[in-house]
Design goal:
The chain is an alpha+beta fold and 313 residues long. It has 3 domains: 43 residues, no CATH class; 107 residues, no CATH class; 127 residues, 2-Layer Sandwich (Nucleotidyltransferase, domain 5), CATH 3.30.420. The chain is built from 9 helices and 10 strands. Strands 5, 6, 7, 8, 9 and 10 form a 6-stranded mixed β-sheet that branches. Strands 1-2 form a two-stranded antiparallel ribbon. A hairpin with a 7-residue loop joins strand 7 and strand 8. The termini are far apart.
């Protein structure tokens, strides 16, 4: 690992088109003569130096404070995850960490997001990928990739509440309503609503919390191979973004979960057209009685004629 003073970095110009030049680490006013042996490297992090006994230079700071989600972090927003974590601790939903070792609440949240992008990787692999070259930096505060047990302990302590806050912070359409690629009906953006069952780990806690669908009994090991979570997801027609979602027990049924989502997030449904599968159970309970803000339009049989939805439901 190569370390140099940030003040010694000099931008010598962009170079030729398609062939940019490197930023040179040299004292101000000093040049680099042709033929000089130069080491090229990518910068990893800029932090205050810690000079140890014997002159060894190490990086100050704490690795979990520097880990980011790359391009995804730009969409989430700078320091948004830190702010959500701080609110969760201040409100008492998450216990305040007592020591700074391998993990932090913002790092747990980022690892959870990263795991959805790398479904074939384990906890340690995701942590190693997310830390990247930061793990190679000689730090004054030692850090190594945590074990799965450490991660699951922090994940259980963090609880789902901060992740739900993060979801609603970033959820929304990817395409503006007035963009050329937007899909509008009667002047309103079109969304679809559908439900799905997701199998989760077969543990006594999950069976007690969620249960299963498709059986007549509520208890017993013979319910189903795995406990399940019922999810009702709102998907924008343009861009396939997920502006909203809600999860619960399978026995809550889609229509009950959808009614709960409407009550909690009425702004999500205002001024939009929502399409359902014609057999969707979510439209069997008169959705027009749930909200006058949006228009509900069950999908019709192939080849049949559909009435145009009226704005205002």
């Amino acid at each position: 690992m190569v370390a140099f003073r940030a003040a010694d970095l000099q931008d010598r110009g962009k170079g030729l088109p398609g062939r940019p030049g490197a930023v040179v680490a040299a004292p101000a006013g000093a040049g680099v003569a042709a033929g000089t042996l130069v080491t090229f490297c990518h910068p990893v992090v800029s932090v205050p130096a810690v000079v140890c006994r014997g002159g060894t230079v190490r990086a100050g700071g704490w690795l979990p404070d520097f880990v980011r989600l790359g391009e995804l972090e730009r969409h989430i927003g700078d320091e948004v995850i830190e702010a959500i974590a701080a609110r969760a601790v201040a409100s008492g939903r998450v216990p305040a960490p007592q020591r700074r070792r391998l993990m932090s609440l913002p790092l747990v949240m980022r690892l959870t997001v990263a795991m959805t992008l790398m479904p074939g990787s384990g906890y340690a692999q995701v942590a190693r990928q997310l830390a990247g070259h930061l793990a190679d930096v000689p730090s004054a505060r030692d850090w190594h990739v945590p074990t799965s047990k450490v991660f699951t302990g922090w994940r259980d302590m963090a609880c789902p509440s901060p992740m739900e806050d993060l979801f609603w912070q970033v959820a929304g359409p990817l395409v503006a309503d007035d963009a050329p690629s937007a899909v509008n009906l009667a002047g309103m953006p079109v969304c679809g609503i559908d439900g799905m069952l997701v199998a989760v780990a077969d543990t006594p806690a999950n069976r007690a919390a969620f249960g299963c669908a498709g059986t007549s009994t509520r208890k017993g090991n013979g319910q189903a191979p795995f406990p399940q979570v019922q999810a009702v997801i709102v998907t924008a027609r343009a861009g396939r973004a997920k502006p909203g979602a809600i999860m619960g027990r399978p026995r809550a049924r889609e229509q009950a979960l959808l009614a709960r989502l409407i009550a909690r997030r009425p702004d999500l449904f205002a001024g939009r057209v929502f399409c359902f599968d014609r057999n969707s159970p979510a439209i069997r309970s008169s959705p027009r009685s749930w909200t006058p803000a949006g228009t509900w339009w069950p999908a019709s049989r192939p080849g049949s004629r559909c009435r145009s939805p009226a704005a205002g439901g």
